[in-house]
């Protein structure tokens, strides 16, 4: 950590700031130059509350040299984390393909989609039971009933199920019923929920990136879960909010590379929510595999034209099947397998 | 609502889409032009699930003519909503000034700040007990103990208290203890929390705008609370996330005007979090009053250099006192009083 | 085009707006519903000045059904445009690889890099002679002298040269010396420059997307060049400005898909400027090819540690050579060749 | 300037980077801590090419302690710059009010608007002759003829004229004819144009902030003009591009404060282009004066419903007159006069 003082700081300002830093338990090294004074901190700077230092009238800036995340940091855990879900792995050589409808709508729908995505080679079934909707008047999901249908689909196909949690009240139920618990983009900084998911379970958490959250904030939210003891976090890039209106969001594939550099956690990509248009999903899926993602999460619906939500971003089973075939060569080209 | 069909739609496409719309209970009017086909919907279009329509292969776009919020909509409630909190009003001619520290830190701190802001003319006391922090290792607030201290400060000064809720588990406690329950920017789309705040209480909710949420999404979140039965919602603009890095966020004062046009709900401005720098707070406060905000929420700390959080955006009590004086003329110039 | 009237419009408002539209030469169809009045326009709506209509007090919104670009529009030109540069094609089955240093720095540097990228399989040489720099005190390029060195490098290798134009004064010189004239991101809406490049030459123009320009604006800038008569426009996605700070810009690969859908023009991707970090360039290049780009533009420098600009985003020749090899399989997987 | 080395840098890395820095003519001070190595630079760091340093494989980051702008920097010029235009001042106690239509459309229009804004108290006349339009098919302005009409309006009213330059070819004409030469948002980083405006004239330049340019980039563009010798630069905040779609752009009033802190140059605000809706202009104008802007630039049109461009953001003369009256009290409250 480096503390930069204001250019007009005098001897007493330097002494005051320096003494405060020393009193907090770090060593300091003061450099006085024509362009100002900088104080370099040596030792365990994680005890320093950056904002407390910035409050001093002579402090121009506090610059972090180390990343603020620890358990999620690759520096302290150089090997990739591979997460095991009922014998299936996420983060290893084999790509994880999670597929299914936006919402669970009926037994027929979820079972039929589950079977077809399994036949095409998907390893996990997704489906929303509790749906975060912008409008209180929109379909809010089948809720508990939807969970039950997902369990039936799992029984029929053997596919582990991935679904979103929206309230801490439901944690016990999700721990019992769900194989991968998803935290949606809008809840990425719902810190109380994250803390409980860290404390109460070791079930894998699929943590979606918030609509306008930086990569550092995203990793800090993973850190919330990990700090509680649950290190089974899977990150999911799903597009960020930008000025561009043609696509629903802007898929940020460079975020996959950034996360891989900064952290050891696996990262999957959700092209369906990013683009918001089914006809972009196949090409973006290929790009996500080419860039090095550990997997994909793709919306598939047997009847998109009548889907209760996000019909226009869902692939039909036949298209999904074709996509899976075309992904094989891309995966191989980057040293992965499907 | 207007449904635009793709240019290459043929007779059967038009018939299919039109029949579907009619079956949903609306009347339609089809216009066929050289630039394509549009279907205008007449009747209660709120029954139409936009996404279901968009899923049809011939639909190019669905255009909403009416805003999706109802209870928050000024069209159905032309007069300003004025909210009464222990006899003090928000939304009327008199400006609501909410002031206090970022976090409650000790009895001395909160009582001293409460007294001083009251003396300067503030009408409400703010102070964080539960703190949403990006890092799990940062100070998380004094939590329940902080709430107790706020109650003591209220007793000493008579100022109603405003503090942030982060978990649905605490709703009962907040209903009992707090005068205005704040929902922070990061929880603006924590829909389960919003629903409960709508159902369980009639206490006023101060709903901050999310970091990158549109004005429409913000009003839809207010609608979540109102749909549950609690119409006492106060909106709070606190800066949005943009590419600019000099300020912590970009204060969007045009949002105040947009909200006033679209909705009858009162809206206050938080210049402290928007700018992230205390020296901008006074000028931005004057601008917020000039633009027509119904009040301000300002961070004031007796010792910013040692504040546990956000010290660099807090005003000292003397500065806050000066600000209050200078606001009088601005308020008068725009037909308000302090 | 659809004109939506305000909900409180009365008979005389409808008549006034409708008459104005008819007087402009289009047919209209008025739909009166409970949710308001809409007027659908039939005929040649390109004569309508949208802003003129919006100025009427009863007009709520004017909605375009057709895209505003014509010559760049795929609807009127379904086949891909393939551009021929000295016998090399951009937009066809074979990918166009443009490589070279950020700036031309010396004869040795540019000739050595040119030879090495040619040996690795690049088809075009890039190199900046006139450099757009944020600071007037930064290296501004070797300017005319740089152009001369590029010509020598072309003679030595046979690679066509691509370089950026910054001023209309230099158009004649560029037409004579350069094979593909690049318009940089900051000049994407320098309309006077675009007009002259449309009028004065048929040389291919490589049009980079502006830092925060929408896809529609980008295509409208292509339209400026094409409207002047020069239809040889190559689009280049190079990252957009978002809130994320880890990468210099955010590479928007979905823009490639959008452009391919909306337009027949070829589009290449510049991963070097997007990421701003050399270690991301290879993976992003693979993703760009996988998504369907028609080519890549990559910074390669023989001595990045001492480059005069953008050293940290340049690949060394050996790495570029490896990248080219690894691209072959990806290209094949998506039906292209290198 | 501070150079941060990567954590795994060894003795030889430190020596290599340090020697390079010393060879460039600065003194260095190396601090080795557990959190890495930092090298503080002492002396004239403006000779250091940041990117050259960043290219070294051991360099993690280069942190600027000083702003990169000099002539625009308040540190070297503590007093406000006041610019004199034909005896009228911008930057002093009196607010500069620049008003007029988006485009010059006819002699009657421009003279009538000029007279009315003068009567209301405006000090300068604006009007576009050369118009930057997204579409090549949109009205491009009356061009040279528009300039002539502005001169006639100036003769009739005595108001100095402000109009936008779009091409370096026209600099001589603008120098002769125009009192304040405007550089539009889209040309803020048209560096060749900026350089010529710095070299060729001492006429004041009104430099609009680019749609998505940071405050630092904006000041660097001012620096381009000033470095050429023309220190008469007036900055203009006109809204930035964000995710919000309700307003055309997001007016960033905190930018006024940032510019005032960092620079001595005057800054005016354009609420008309920022909001894009006439009914927001009055309130935003009051906010801009309250925040401390040195003036306003406002679109006024005698017949907005039939304006050739931007009719929906133009005020009618009567409304402008009322606005001017209401600004008086706000101006007085912040120590300014109208």
From TrEMBL, chains A, B, C, D:
Q: Which gene encodes it?
A: aroF
The record's listing under InterPro entries reads: Aldolase_TIM, Class-I_DAHP_synthase, DAHP1/KDSA, DAHP_snth_FXD, DAHP_syn_2
The answer to whether keyword Endoplasmic reticulum applies is no
The molecule here is called: Phospho-2-dehydro-3-deoxyheptonate aldolase
Gene3D superfamilies registered for this protein in UniProt: Aldolase class I, Phospho-2-dehydro-3-deoxyheptonate aldolase, domain 1
Keywords (A to Z) from UniProt: Transferase
Biological process, per Gene Ontology: aromatic amino acid family biosynthetic process
GO terms (molecular function) for this protein are: 3-deoxy-7-phosphoheptulonate synthase activity; aldehyde-lyase activity
């Amino acid at each position: 950590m480096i503390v930069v003082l204001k250019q007009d700081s005098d001897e007493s300002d330097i002494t005051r700031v320096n003494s405060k830093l020393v009193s907090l338990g770090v060593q300091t090294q003061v450099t006085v130059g024509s362009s100002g004074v900088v104080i370099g901190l040596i030792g365990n700077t994680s005890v320093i509350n950056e904002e407390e230092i910035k409050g001093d009238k002579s402090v121009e800036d506090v610059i972090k040299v180390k990343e603020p995340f620890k358990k999620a940091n690759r520096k302290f855990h150089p090997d990739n984390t591979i997460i095991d879900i009922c014998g299936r792995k996420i983060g290893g050589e084999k790509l994880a393909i999670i597929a299914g409808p936006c919402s669970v709508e009926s037994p027929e729908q979820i079972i039929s989609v589950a079977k077809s995505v399994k036949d095409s080679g998907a390893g996990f079934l997704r489906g929303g039971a509790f749906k975060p909707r912008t409008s209180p008047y929109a379909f809010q999901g089948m809720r508990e009933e939807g969970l039950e249908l997902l369990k039936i689909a799992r029984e029929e196909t053997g596919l582990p199920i991935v679904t979103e949690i929206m309230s801490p009240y439901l944690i016990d139920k999700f721990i019992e019923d769900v194989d991968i618990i998803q935290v949606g983009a809008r809840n990425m900084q719902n810190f109380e929920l994250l803390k409980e998911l860290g404390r109460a379970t070791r079930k894998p958490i699929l943590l979606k990136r918030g609509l306008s959250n930086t990569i550092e904030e995203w990793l800090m939210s993973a850190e919330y879960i990990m700090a509680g003891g649950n290190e089974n976090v899977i990150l999911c890039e799903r597009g960020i909010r930008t000025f561009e209106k043609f696509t629903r969001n802007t898929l940020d594939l460079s975020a996959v590379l950034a996360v891989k550099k900064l952290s050891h956690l696996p990262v999957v990509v959700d092209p369906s929510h990013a683009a918001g248009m089914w006809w972009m999903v196949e090409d973006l899926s290929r790009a996500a595999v080419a860039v090095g993602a550990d997997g994909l999460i793709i919306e598939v619906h047997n009847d998109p034209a009548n889907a209760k939500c996000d019909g226009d971003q869902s692939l039909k089973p036949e298209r999904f099947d074709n996509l899976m075939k075309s992904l094989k060569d891309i995966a191989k080209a980057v040293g992965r397998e499907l």
